[in-house]
Each structure stands twice: as C-alpha cells, then as structure tokens.
Write a structure and sequence with these properties.
The chain is α/β, with parallel strands linked by helices. The chain folds into three domains: 2-144, Rossmann fold, CATH 3.40.50; 148-262 and 273-288, no CATH class; 314-381, RNA polymerase sigma factor, region 2, helix turn helix motif (Rna Polymerase Sigma Factor, Chain: A, Orthogonal Bundle). Helices cover 49% and strands 15% of the residues. It has 17 helices and eleven strands. The chain has a seven-stranded parallel sheet, sandwiched between helices. The protein has a four-stranded mixed sheet with strand order 9-8-10-11, covered by helices on one side. β5 (92-95), α5 (103-111) and β6 form a beta-alpha-beta unit. The longest helix is centred in the C-terminal third of the chain and has 21 residues, at 361-381. The radius of gyration is 20 Å and the shape is globular. The protein starts with a strand and ends with a helix. The structure holds NADPH dihydro-nicotinamide-adenine-dinucleotide phosphate and magnesium ion.
C-alpha cells in the first residue's frame, strides 16, 4: 500500500490521478490533498478519500471546510501546500500544480525524502539545477508524469546505461497547426482552448497552442535525461499515438505508443517499477490508419525557438522565459493581450533578464518576481 499526497488534486492531472487511485484501492491510499479555487470538487474529494490533511488556498476556505470535516486537519496557502508535500504519512507526492509556484513544495518533498510523481514542468524549467541536485542528494525517485517524458523514461529502461544519441519529442501541434501568420493574429481564447487531442488545464492548453509546451518539455527532457538542446528533436505528430522515442548510439530507435490518455503515464509514475492492469484501452493501430510526422514551424510558433535559446543561455534566461510566459498566458486568457503578443512579451523579458546571475533558489524567486512585474507592465502597455 502506497500513501499518496496530491498537490493540486482538483486540476486535470489531480483528478485523473484520483481516478487511477479509485480504480486501484488495494495499492494506493490518499493521505493529503490540496486545492486552489474549486471548493465544490474539493468537498467531494474529501468526502470520498478522507485524507489526514487537506489544504485550501485561503484560510477562510480552510475554516469553512474544516467545520464540515472535523476529522480532517486543514491548512492553507503555499505553507499548507509545503506541509502536504512533506506530510509524515506520505510515501509519494504527486506534484500536479501548475506554474513555478511548485518550486518550494517540490524542494520540501525532496528534502523530506518523498518519492515524487512529477507533472509540474514549469518548476523544472525554472529551477532544474536546484531540484535535480536535491533529488541526487536525497536519493528519492523522481518520476515523470508528462506523457512524453514517461514515454522517454520507458524507452530508456529498455537499455539501461546505454548511450542516448537523440531524443525524439513528439507533439500534436495544437489547434493552430497549418494556420497562416494572419490567421494566428486573430485567434480567440475559445479557439486556443480547444485542443484537438488532450483535455487539460487552461495554462498548458494555451502552452500547447503556442508550442511553448514543447519548449518547456525540451527543457524538462534536458534535466530528466541529460540530453542537450541539439540532441532533442521536436517532431509534430498529429495523431498523438507515438508519445516520444529514443535513438540509441547504435541507431536503434525505441518509442512508446498508446492511446492518448494521461491516466497511463500517471499510473506508471504511481506504480513504477510495476505496471497496473487495464489502465487505458488497447491501442487501435488499424483504427489510427496512418501516423504522420512533420517539422514544427518555428517561424509561426516562435516560442519553441525562444525555449531553445533559453536552454542554451542558462538558468536566468529560463526563469525569465517561464515567468514571462505564465504572465502572458494569463493576460491572454483574461483578454488583455492577443495570441501573438505572448511570444513578443516573452522575448522582451528574456532580452531584459537573461544576463542576470542566479546562484541559488532565492535568486530564482527574486528574478521570477522582477520578470512578472515587467511582463505585466508590457502586457498593460499593449
Ligand atoms: P490545472 O490548472 O488543471 O490544475 C492545477 C491545480 O493546481 C488545481 O488543483 C488548482 O486548483 C491548483 N492551483 C492552481 N493555482 C493555485 C494556487 N495559487 N494555490 C493553490 N492551488 C492552486 O493544471 P493541469 O492539471 O492541467 O496541469 C498541472 C501541471 O501538469 C502543469 O505543470 C502542466 O504543464 C502539467 N501537465 C499537465 C497535463 C495535462 O494533461 N493536464 C499533461 C502533462 C503535463 P483549482 O483547480 O482548485 O483552482
Ligand atoms: Mg506533454
């Protein structure tokens, strides 16, 4: 029996993680849950899973729910999330938070010796050095939930220790694949939120539409698998059947295929090194008919090139890129800037802050705050 603490249990990854746990109650037990603003769903989750600790975003929400669930201990805010991340009863922490707010809880979970099922890519993009050093020091398992990285992880295990020549990182291309520059200039929030293959939280759905998601994933692959920018090839694969592949030094390519269903990588991270039964329906290759592969259009989607630059330039550049992207995406979702303003804001922030020095986690937070303030200014001026 594994005791699981889920950070962000009301989100897309969080709810699917609870689906996997619900279907495998003999293997997993929920010991801590955290939510943001979705109190109605959180209430249902608390009634169903009775965790020892529940964390709300605000103290007021924690007090409200605390009165309804007297047997559960409540906490609130980032401090509360950090408490759930290091909860004494947890064997594994699922980090399903969105954005670099996940840095502090991730560090706390690692320091507390918890194994981590990790979805929260922005945290690794901004603080990969500090996180991976802490993972090595603590000797905890750090298991990818992102479907591409779960795929790469599974491929790598086919030849332990073998030299990797290339990582082939696949992506569906998002809702605007094949659009012209003019068309892209006038897309709406509703269109951008309509992903052709995956149903996900709003932030990652917009990242998928700009291709920043592939850029963030390239950096995630760098930290998880030690592959440099030139060793990672991004390939657009609209059917989302091949979830990524690895080419070994002899030229052999091993890929992982499955129906596009996030429950599969979530379940594998929870159960690794074992596999659970019947998590996803069988892959219907004949139904898929054909598998297409295309080069991404980096002129149309400059976020991918910006991420390449950030990966080459170093940590300050990655922090600036990530914080600016978070601000620009929320400004787009709020209708304050247009779709093509997103890369423009990111580029301006990268120009401004890439030369900064970052030597520790405090510098990460300081640069994050300065970048956010500047990105907000830029968004307002548009
Ligand atoms: P969601 O937006 O659906 O979920 C985010 C979770 O974090 C929710 O539980 C939300 O609470 C909570 N949260 C957000 N802001 C705060 C806050 N300020 N304080 C406390 N809690 C907060 O995101 P996803 O599940 O889609 O994505 C999570 C991570 O996983 C991201 O890094 C994403 O890139 C990555 N990922 C997601 C995939 C997917 O299929 N969704 C696939 C691969 C990676 P609430 O909803 O209650 O407000
Ligand atoms: Mg992914």
């Amino acid at each position: 029996m594994k005791n699981i603490s889920i950070l962000g249990s009301t989100g897309s990854i969080g709810t699917q993680c609870l689906d996997v746990i619900r279907e495998n109650r003999e293997s997993f037990r929920v010991c801590a849950l955290t939510c943001g603003q979705n109190l109605a769903l959180f209430r249902d989750q608390l009634a169903e899973f009775s965790p020892g600790l529940a964390v709300c975003r605000s103290r007021k929400d924690a007090e409200t729910l605390g009165a309804e669930f007297p047997d559960i201990r409540f906490a609130s805010g980032l401090k509360g999330i950090c408490e759930a991340a290091s909860y004494f009863d947890a064997d594994m922490v699922v980090n399903a938070l969105s954005g670099m707010m996940g840095i502090a809880p991730t560090m706390d979970a690692i320091k507390a010796g918890k194994d981590i099922a990790f979805a929260n890519k922005e945290t690794l993009v901004a603080a990969g050095e500090q996180i991976m050093d802490a993972v090595a020091d603590a000797g905890v398992a750090f298991l990818p939930v992102d479907s591409e990285h779960s795929a790469i992880f599974q491929c790598v295990q086919a030849s332990p220790g073998a030299e990797i020549k290339r990582i082939i990182l696949t992506g569906s291309g998002g809702p605007f694949r094949g659009f012209t520059k003019e068309q892209l200039g006038s897309v709406t929030v509703e269109q951008a939120l309509c992903h052709p293959k995956w149903s996900m939280g709003k932030k990652i759905t917009i990242d998928s539409a700009t291709l920043m998601n592939k850029g963030l994933e390239m950096i995630e692959a760098y930290f998880l698998f030690g592959a440099g920018e030139s060793d990672i090839e991004v390939v657009i694969h609209p059917q989302s059947v091949l979830h990524s592949a690895v080419e070994f030094s002899d030229g052999s390519v091993i890929g992982q295929m499955a129906e596009p269903d996030m429950k599969l990588p979530i379940a594998y991270a929870l159960s690794w090194p074992e596999r659970l039964r019947g998590v996803s329906k069988s892959l219907d290759l004949l139904g898929a008919g054909r598998l297409d592969f295309e080069k991404p259009d980096e002129d149309l989607f400059p976020c991918l090139s910006l991420a390449r630059t950030a990966l080459r330039e170093g940590q300050a550049c990655r922090i600036a890129m990530n914080a600016a992207n978070e601000e620009a995406v929320w400004a787009f979702l709020a209708g304050r800037v247009g779709f093509t303003d997103i890369p423009a804001i990111i580029e301006r922030c990268m120009d401004m802050f890439c030369g900064e020095t970052v030597t520790g986690i405090e510098d990460v937070y300081a640069l994050e705050a300065r970048t956010r303030a500047y990105a907000k200014e830029l968004a307002e001026a548009l």
